[in-house]
Structure formats: C-alpha cells, structure tokens
Amino acid sequence: MPPLAIALSGISKHFGPVAANKDVSLSIAAGSIHGIVGENGAGKSTLMSILYGFYEADAGEIRIAGEARQIRSPADAIAAGIGMVHQHFMLVETLSVVENIILGAEGAAWLKNGVGKARAELARLAQDYGLVIDPDAIVGDLSVGLQQRVEILKALYRGADILILDEPTAVLTPPEADQLFALLRALKAQGKTVVLITHKLREIMDVTDAVSVMRRGEMVAHLTTAETSPPELAEAMVGRRVLLRVEKEARRRGKPVLEAVGLGVRDARGVELLQDLSLTLHAGEIVGIAGVAGNGQSELLEVLAGLLRSSRGVIRLGGRILNNADRSPAKLRKLGLMHIPEDRQRTGLVTAFSAAENAILGYQEDTAFGTGLFMSPSRIEAHARTTFNAYDVRPPDPGLKTAKFSGGNQQKIVLAREIERHPKVLLVGQPTRGVDIGAIEFIHRRLIALRDAGVAILLVSVELEEVMALSDRILAMCGGRITGERAAATADERDLGLLMAGVNERAA
Amino acid sequence: MSAAPIDLPRWADAGLVPLVSVAAALLVAGLVVLGIGESPLEATALLLRGALGSAEGIGFTLYYTTNFIFTGLAVAVAFHAGLFNIGGEGQATIAGVFAALACLWLQPLPGFLLVPLAILSAAAGGALYGFIPGWLQATRGSHVVITTIMFNFIAATLIVYLLVEVIGKPGSMQPETANFAGHAILTPMHQLLAPLGLKLPATPLNTAFLLALASLVAIWALIFRSRLGYCIRTVGANPRAAAYAGISPARITMVAMAISGALAGGLAVNEVMGVQHRLLLDFTAGYGFVGIAVALMGRGHPIGVGLAALLFGVLYQGGAELSFDKPGITRDMVVVIGGVIILFAGALDGLFRRFVASGLRLGRRA
C-alpha cells in the first residue's frame, strides 16, 4: 500500500457558534486524484483553507507524507509541498508569465538570477507535463484556461507535490476543462497528488480515483470512484434522494413577446461587449444562453433589464417598441418584464436589510405596502410571511437580516419577489449559482411551472447542464455575439462547446 | 466586501460598542489630564457638576445639545445614503445668511409668520448649499468629501464679504448685521416657561431645542418609515441594487444632501435666531465638525444621535466650567475627546467590535 500524501484526523473548526468542520478525517493516497464534493457551505473550502494555512483548526492533526505538521500560514503549506489553485486566480495581470511565477519566490534583490532559474524550470515543467506556455506573454492577454495553467505552474515551481484545485472548471469551456483533466492525469502519472474540490459530479466520475463527500461540516462518505455513481454521490451530499433530471413536457410556444434586434453595447474604452445581437422570446418557452462567463451574457441581461444602455438596436416588448424612457427598470417592471439578476448579493438584494425589506425591493412604490409617503411595516412583514411560506424560505423569519440566509434561501427571496408579480417576461441570470442541490431542484421546478403558465423566460447560466436541462431552445454566445442556435432536445454538449468557443463548424 | 463583519447581538451593536469606545476615549482624555498634572477624577466631578449640577448648567448643556442634534442628524442622514457630508459648517453658514436675510427683510411681518418663514429660509439655504455638492457628485462624479470641505471655505469667505460689504450694520466696523427685531427671534426657554411659574435662570436655551427634538422624530420617521427613507437606505447600502430596483442613485444623492444641508441649517436657527439675534462671523464654531462624531457615536440612528448630542452637550458645558476652575485644562480638552471619539467610533470601530465580541464569547463560556 502506498504511503498517504495527506492524513487529516479529527479536524474541527468553529466560526462563532457555527461548526464549519466537525471531527473531519480524510486520507488521500499519494499519486492519486482525490475528489471532495459537497453542497455550498458543507465545509469543503474551510477544510482546504485549514490545509493551506489560511485558518488554524481548533482541534485535529495534519500529517503530510506521514509526518505530523503544524500549518499556520500558506508559507508553512508551501514548505510542506502543498500548492493551491484558487477559484479566483491570484495573478498580476500586467506582469508576464515568468514574473508571475517567481512572484514571492524571487530569490534575491535582483531579478536576473530568479528569472533565469524560472525559465529553465519552466522549460523542464513544459517537457515533463506538456505544460507549454510562452514565459514572456503578459498574463492579462492569456485566455482563462491558460491563466489557470500559470497558477498550476506557480504551485509546481514552488515544489508542490500536492496540488489543491478549488472549483477549477467553473470558468472553463468544456474543451478547456478536458485539457485541464488531461493535465491532472499527467501530473498523477508523475507521482503528484491532486485534490479536486467541485460540486460537479460528472467531473468526479471522469477524473478522480477516490471521492470524499462532505455534508454540514462532516465527512459523510469515502468512496472509490469506480464503485460509485452520480445518484449515490448526490444522495450522500444532500442526505436524501435527489432528482438529477429536470422533468418537463414539451409545450407549444406562443406568440413572440420580447424581440431584440441588432443590439450593440460598447464599454468606456470602445470595446464592443455586444455586437449586432438579435433574439426573440416567445410566450411559454425557455431560451437558454450558453456561454463561458464574460462573453456578453451579463451585458445582454442588463440591457434587456434596463440597467445598461445599448448603443445600438431596438427592443420590442409585447409588440411595442421601447423608447429610452421605457427602458428603465421601474418602467419595465410595470410592463411585465421582471429580472432575477445574476448576482443576488450585489444586485438583487440589499444584504444589510431585513428579509421583509428585500421582499419589496423594486416594488417600494406599491400602495399595497403603505399609502402616501409612508410605508406600513406590518403590511410589509405580512407580505413577506406569505411569500416565504409559499416559497419555503428558511427560516421563514421576515425580520432576519438577509445576509444571514443561505445562498439558496436568498435566491428564493429574489425568485419569490419577481415571480409573485406575474411577469410576462422573466430574465433569469445564474438561478442556481451557489445554491444547494435541494434548492436547485425547487428553483428548476418553479421555472418550468412558470413556462407552462405561458411566461417567456430568458435563462443565462454558466452551468451548461442547467441550460440544457431547462431550455427549449439554446443560443450560444461568444465574444458578444450569438454564435449559433440549437433545439435543446437535439443539442449535444460537444457541439455547444464549440459554438461557445466561437468555432462555428455547423453553420447555424 | 472582503472581511466578514463581526456579528453582534443588536443590543451590543447599538449600545455596548459605542459605550466602550466612549469609555476608551474618556480614558485617553483622563490620561492627558493626568499628563498635565491634574487629577482626572476631580476633573470629571467638576465637569459633571458644571454640566448637570445646576439649572443654569443644564440650560447651557441643552443649548449645546441642540446644536449637536442638528449637525449630528445632518451627518447621519447623509450616512444612510452612503455619503460623508463634512460640509455642515458651510451649510450652516449659508443657512445663517438666509435666516438673517429673512429676519431683516421680512421684518414688517408679524412674528407668527416671520419666525417660521425665517426657519424655512435657513433650511432652504442649508439645503441649497448641501444640494450643490450632491449635484456635482451625481452628475460629475466629484466626491462630496472633497467638495463639501472646499464648500466650507467658500462659505466662510462669502459670509465675510457679505457682512463687510453687503448686509453689515451701516456705520459699524463690526462684521455683523443689525440686531433682529424682538418678534423675529426664538423665545428663550426661561421666558417661555415663566408663565407656568417656573423661575429659570437666563440661558441661551431657546425654542430651537424643541425644533431639534421634533427633528429627531421626523428624521426617524423619514429614514425608517417613509418610502424616501427606504430609497435612501437602499442607495447607501447597495447602489447597484438601488438601480436594479428602479431607484436613481443620482437623484437620491442630491435629495439626501439637500436634507442633510437643511438639518445643518438648524444650527443657524439656534445660534442666529435663538442666541445671537444677529448674523456674525464664525457662529458655527466647529459644531458642524463635532456633528460627525455625534453621528458616528449614535450609529446614524436618531435615538443614538440624541444621546450622543447630549453627551457632547455635557462635555461642552462641563468643559467650559472645568476650564474656568482649572485654567490648566482648556476647552481644547473637549475637542481632544471629540477627536478621539471620531478615531475610536469611526476608524477603529472594528477593533472595539472584536473586543466586545470576544468579551461576549468569554461571558457565554463562563
């Protein structure tokens, strides 16, 4: 039996009264790819932060390669041979690849020696792992996939034998994700140990040797990947049986409700964020936008919701051309266009407010919540109580500060607020980002029910699986343009991936 | 948001944290008193006796409190909209000009019309002078922290010009206006209460104090109960969410700055119409800046602002008495305490929150 690369035993960590990790034990074999799955807030990130020295555990023991270690800071972790690739890259975009690699490990006051050494090392790593990259390229000019590669090189340059990757595929196209997995396999073949944190079960099945499941701060299962299945993993994560497929029947779509023709948006520097974009949304259909984050989906949602001015193009809502005055969020709401924004904490909610106050955000002028200049706290609270019960918001406490709700329940507050207003058109951005599996199921069922009731829904999500499961039609976006349309029933992931990457092999 | 804010129970957040920071500020002031060779305990006793030990002392204390309620509320309203209005001094100065003009020009009117009009005029002057920086930030992106500071200087210069060249008392070398007519001023409290059989010593305390108390209630209703207050708080807490909700952050910025300026105008009402009965230079005397400390200590809530204003009233009046008894301790000591409170309640807030949070944890464990 090979020695263990990582052996954690009895790790506990409390934040105030909340136990983020409870008596967690974990063994990871050297030279393996080990997955850690769990819902948001299950304690995966806390555990890895303890391993990487961001937090110190209240109790427990860490052994690296058989040796007990005190890891109090990332420097200790690096010294122990642990490298981490964060979900949000820790790179200086204006510096070159080699400058980023030596950052923090420059070696001397003068950069010359460090840079020379780094170049030689980079050449060796390129040969060993097929990690080819131009050392003089400016990091900001690289694609997201290549930037991630720089992060991995950084860890390897510091002598990491154990590599932790936190949700590495969240920002990648499917082909880029495949390249990453090939790289992880190459690392494994060279004897490195890889820890992969994710909530995507497909990735676990594809690439890992073993998988550990966390739930509510505890380690609930250790499984060999070859002997498990996605349903079994999902059940372990949630603690009950979960429907992974979205049940929906085919429906006839109705009349066009929202039409956009030739939309264009430029940012302050004149870069075109949307180019000549046209789409039509019919009553009773869900149109999904597939795309890698940052390809204009956010701008599309904001333009349609009246949050961003388009420099060009016409929008027609219910047959009526919207003028500038119509294209304000308040007016659009009155016309029946509701918007569930991509980022609920930055846009959809005021997290410092009570849940009841957030349940009226955007509808603060409604006379149902008070007459004249003043609002009625009792009516606002009663309204929140009713909708929270209908949407199973937990805890159903209208007075509680919104920041104290979990991601899924915050999303339900937004969802309830917008759906209860009987939209004709619903714009939905990232409906299940950072939401646990139980709530995902709930949100998906609500959206389908809304479609069946004749609402036109535009769905933007970086989760391709979600887009494919919910949509009737799928539009792929790349570089601010729509690169193709597919019927959801016949779409396949590989084909969409190419469209999302801007490679249009089957003309749309 | 980078670091997660430390979560505290509401009573600790609203009560304990400000108390701890005030206690720490007083402790620092005590050390300074010790440093200049006086006894901090004796000084504290003198200060409290001077502020609260006699009817006269209380009258002066409440007179100072009136000023701090207005300037504290001014800063607090802007805070709720996410704005830092440092221009209370300038807004009060312009409000004073407007009040004086109303009192002088509208003198033929009877008192029951003249006084409310002069108060409204003061509020309008302050509102206008607060609105301009708000408008500049909303339309041009000029930050109110910078513009309001600069506007303080403009107002200070403008009032000199006006008093010397335009509205000064003819034939006088003093940079001040003629005295207002007897029916154009606010009634002193000792006169107001005299018919009730209360014999109070003469103090500057006047009916502006009642206006200040009414403002506390009105601002509470505005911020926490009105639609406009909801919009102001939304813009202050999350401008993106405000835009999403159909609230214009630019409009709210201008409205909130105007309300803030109008409240700062209350300082002019108290000083110009209630105490000096004429417009003169430097009547704002730094009250506008102390309003920042008052609002910080009061956590922007009208109840807190009222209590903090009372504390500063006590410090001002007690400090004056103290410097009379102990010439070694000047009134600058009160300015020191105010500054330390701004430092502790504003800049080092997180420190005290952490301190209180760990104290509570220990208490729970014990």
From TrEMBL, chain A:
Q: Which CDD domains match?
A: ABC_Carb_Monos_I, ABC_Carb_Monos_II
Q: Which domain of life is it from?
A: Bacteria
Residue stretches making up the ABC transporter domain: 6-241, 258-504
Spell out the InterPro entries in the cross-references. AAA+_ATPase, ABC_carbohydrate_import_ATPase, ABC_transporter-like_ATP-bd, ABC_transporter-like_CS, P-loop_NTPase
List, alphabetically, the Gene3D superfamilies matched: P-loop containing nucleotide triphosphate hydrolases (3.40.50.300)
Q: What SMART domains does UniProt report for this protein, alphabetically?
A: AAA
A Gene Ontology cellular component where this protein is annotated is:
plasma membrane
Keyword terms, alphabetized: ATP-binding, Cell membrane, Membrane, Nucleotide-binding, Repeat, Sugar transport, Translocase, Transport
**The keyword ATP-binding appears for this protein:** yes
Name of the featured protein:
Nucleoside ABC transporter ATP-binding protein
Automatic annotation (TrEMBL), chain B:
Q: How does it sit in the membrane?
A: Multi-pass membrane protein
Is the keyword tRNA processing assigned to this protein? no
The coiled-coil regions, if any, are none
Listed GO cellular component terms?
Answer: plasma membrane
**Subcellular localization, as worded in the UniProt entry:** Cell membrane
Q: Which InterPro entries match?
A: ABC_transp_permease
Q: What is this protein called?
A: Nucleoside ABC transporter membrane protein
Which UniProt key words apply to this protein? Answer: Cell membrane, Membrane, Transmembrane, Transmembrane helix
Give GO MF terms, alphabetically: transmembrane transporter activity
The lineage's top-level taxon is Bacteria
Q: Which organism is it from?
A: Bosea lathyri
